[in-house]
Amino acid sequence: MRRILVTGGAGFIGSNLTLTLQERFPDADITVVDDFRSGDFRNLRGFRGDFVAADVSRMDWSGRFRDDTFDAIFHLASITDTTEHGQLLQGHDNIEGFRRLLEFAAPTQVPVVYASSAATYGIASGVNREDQPPAPANVYAFTKVQLDNLARRWARRNPSWRIVGLRYFNVYGPREVHKLAAASMIYQLYRQLKSGKRPRVFRSGEHKRDFVFVRDVVDLTIAARNAPRSDIFNCGSGQPFSFNEVIVELNRHLGTTLEPEYFDNPYSFYQPHTEADMTKARTELGFTPQYPPARGIAEYVETLESLKA
Question: Which entry of 179, 194, 262, 280 is annotated as an active-site residue?
Fold first, then answer.
């Protein structure tokens, strides 16, 4: 890959992806497009490429990149705040941003890897497989279903073009701090423990999530560029982990012994269990997650503690 475009490259996953691409492809010309709504310039410290400050749903793609050709496009830009309930805003910015990107990329059929979401599965509990029918429970998830629909439509019209979606599960890791309340539960619990507070979780802490370390997410995102065909893949650890287990690991690595503080769950639709079936990514992309939750949490805590040293 000599010319690479990353949308949303100042965000949590996007910045980890951008800096990893820069490390692995040191001679590549990398361009990031971001409007900083879900990102932060500090995430791109050390970035040596070009930065375009723009909203992908309103940018003049052809005018801006008239003389540019790319070997890969990684599309991570979107409104990622699931508490943003403005349906027109979410629908326009997430869906139209992807539509305009595909219209721009179609003439050259550059491989496109885009961020879908495990939210497309809805609130059904248990193991999630890519062939499940979508059941979005909020407008954010609905927009991600529409991205998947758009990708399939363009792929049917252009069978040789590779458009690959990744359904990210509960991602955590470095460069998420700027998200504040929207950062991962692992980071939220870390902050509580660091401040000497008992970590607060819903009773009785046995809800399980497929927490996936951002380094695994980046590796699968890069691998997806070479998928044999257009498709959609889960992106998780494949190992559900309870909030109680998260607290045990955080206590271990912080040297604390704070017990959870349980409180009643006010949400009738809260998922007791999420889990990504990673069979398809393993068989078709040769990808196996390298960071089971215990290892990922250990490495994340080490990184967070080094920042405070």
Answer: 179
Q: Are residues 149 and 244 in the same domain?
A: no
CATH assignment at residue 33: 3.40.50.720
Location of structure tokens 């309340």: 181
pLDDT digits (tens, 9 = 90+) for 7-52: 999 999 999 999 999 999 999 999 999 999 989 999 999 999 999 9
Provide the domain limits for residue 262.
171-210+239-276+291-308
| CA gap 205, 243 in Å, rounded | 5
Question: What is the pTM for the complete model shown?
Answer: 0.95
Asked if 219 and 290 touch (Cβ cutoff 8 Å), the reply is: yes
Is there a single domain that holds both residue 195 and residue 270? yes
140 is annotated as an active-site residue: yes
Tokens of 38: 């879900």
| pLDDT tens, residue by residue, 182-199 | 999 999 999 999 999 999
Q: What is the pLDDT of residues 264-290, one digit of tens each?
A: 877 766 778 899 999 999 999 999 999
C-alpha 77/C-alpha 99 separation (Å) is 12
Both structure tokens of 94: 């997430």
Beta carbons of 30 and 74 less than 8 angstroms apart = no
Catalytic residue among 114, 140, 291, 300: 140
Q: Indicate if 194 belongs to the active site.
A: no
> What are the E-state strand segments in 145-221?
163-168, 170-172, 200-202, 208-209, 211-213
- Structural domains of the chain, count: 2
For residue 186, the number of C-alpha atoms closer than 13 Å in the C-beta half-sphere is: 31
